[in-house]
């Protein structure tokens, strides 16, 4: 192989990346696709509201009206939130990263539509994070990780990237719900970061098994998110006002006493 051929092969990935991320524009706006994606967004919002009203609200709407609650009641509510939690997780992914971004890309005649990749086939978390949201991943990589990695090293730079992303997610949750309850901050910035090295080796050796493990963690994690945020929301709504109420102090920790009855059993309703 000639030297020119070797140089072409070495520079091919970079050239392909520049081509994929170029600011190419489409020739016209297909308003039919815009309307279709906007209708998808509206349908998904209705779907999430239905999941909330039908499967989540009945289990937690009375939380905080009584000063004591049995641990079994909370456990049943947690299990009830698993399926709605994963459905909301998938619905929000499709709503934002497919329908919403494709609608605006069509309006702005933006040619590059690679907003996500096949994250659902991932067997380790580092690949999942890269494929889940290509838009945010590319921004964090180019503006935080790449500038910091030469001086701080890869582990510290990775930690900073996760910290910035986790704080941004928590700010969105706090402003939307009206209270600070750092569940997503802990799950994403702590547990999610720890899962990157824990699944790296095993995910490459046993991809099928670790893909199932990741989906199991998605089910449990999103169920806990749905459960804990619902508990805090209704605790702030139902518990009597107090002079110690604060935007930053969770009310579900102090307003309600969780009691554990000896010999209790779990019964599926």
Explain this structure to me?
The N terminus is likely disordered. With 269 residues, the chain is mainly α. It is built from 9 helices and 2 strands; from the N terminus they run H-H-E-H-H-H-H-H-H-H-E. 71% of the residues lie in helices and 2% in strands. Helix 2 runs antiparallel to helix 4, helix 4 packs across helix 9 and helix 8 runs antiparallel to helix 9. The chain has a two-stranded parallel sheet. The longest helix has 32 residues. GO terms for molecular function: O-acyltransferase activity. It is a multi-pass membrane protein. InterPro entries: MBOAT_fam, Oat_ACAT_DAG_ARE. Keywords: Acyltransferase, Endoplasmic reticulum, Membrane, Transferase, Transmembrane, Transmembrane helix. It is found in: Endoplasmic reticulum membrane.
Topology (elements, then pairings):
Elements (H helix, E strand, L loop, with lengths): L2 H18 L10 H30 L7 E3 H10 L1 H26 L17 H8 L1 H19 L1 H24 L5 H23 L1 H32 L18 E3 L10
Parallel strand pairs: 1-2
Helix pairs in contact: 2-4, 3-9, 4-9, 6-7, 7-8, 8-9
How would you briefly describe this protein structure?
Belongs to the membrane-bound acyltransferase family. Sterol o-acyltransferase subfamily. The protein is mainly α. The protein has helices at residues 3-20, 31-60, 71-80, 82-107, 125-132, 134-152, 154-177, 183-205, 207-238, and strands spanning 68-70, 257-259.
